[in-house]
Amino acid sequence: MDGKSDSNEGLFLTLEGDDGVGKSTQADLLAAWLEKRGHGVLRVHEPGGTRLGEKIRTLLLDKDDDAMAPLAELLLFEAARAQVMSEVIEPALARGEVVVCDRFTDSTLAYQGYGRELGAELVRATNDLACGGRYPTRTLLLALDPSVARERVEDRSTDGTGDRMESAGDAFRARLRAGFDEIAAAEPQRVHVIDANGSVAQVHERICADIADLLGGRDE
Ligand code: TYD
């Protein structure tokens, strides 16, 4: 899929993957690495990144809300996205910054399209609407042994099941992982699969190698 692009604009990078694969840690490390190389960096996560988006995030992750309809869930994720695009991401790209975003449209496709079985066509359409046709330059899909990812989610939550999204069942998780695989296969130029097994430092090195390549081919 071709997104908006303008060579004077910043670079839009996203990290994706199942819960517990280490995206947030790696996004922080990548942002610091880019800053050290002299780039202006905006680090953001989805859903959230704005006042409104953080409120929507609270609604979405609330485990007591076990009656949320899949379509309502999809539209809430997209509403948070529309806000962070217009308030935070587009302005940063216009300033020439590198945006490092923890989850984006591919999460919606994998979780709501495949996981909740709303279908890829509907989710592609709502994604397009919410992001205004602005897709990442490069997406790093962190791939980790599912049992290791599961253990991490259980370890970091108080009751061993995680938030509303993390506590969806095994069949849901299998579908969303298959969704990510399909996304990577469909757009191999944009979506690069990164082996997320090993130490934090090892995974960080793999990510830096990938992004150094991208920067080298672009402006350095
Ligand atoms: P978060 O705590 O950000 O997840 P993690 O730290 O594991 O990356 O919680 C976001 C949850 O919302 C996560 O389970 C993935 C899910 N999600 C969707 O289902 N659809 C989406 O469009 C996005 C952005 C996230």
Describe this structure in words.
This protein is of the alpha/beta class and 220 residues long. It has a single domain, classed as Rossmann fold (3-Layer(aba) Sandwich), CATH 3.40.50. It is 55% helix and 12% strand. The protein contains eight helices and five strands. The chain has helices spanning 23-36, 51-61, 70-94, 105-115, 120-131, 146-156, 170-186, 200-218; strands at 11-16, 41-45, 98-102, 138-143, 191-195. It has a five-stranded parallel beta sheet, sandwiched between helices. Bound molecules: thymidine-5'-diphosphate. Thymidine-5'-diphosphate binds next to α1 and α4.
Question: What order do the helices and strands come in, and which of them pair?
Answer:
Elements (H helix, E strand, L loop, with lengths): L10 E6 L6 H14 L4 E5 L5 H11 L8 H25 L3 E5 L2 H11 L4 H12 L6 E6 L2 H11 L13 H17 L4 E5 L4 H19 L2
Parallel strand pairs: 1-3, 1-4, 2-3, 4-5
Helix pairs in contact: 1-8, 2-3, 3-5, 4-5, 4-7
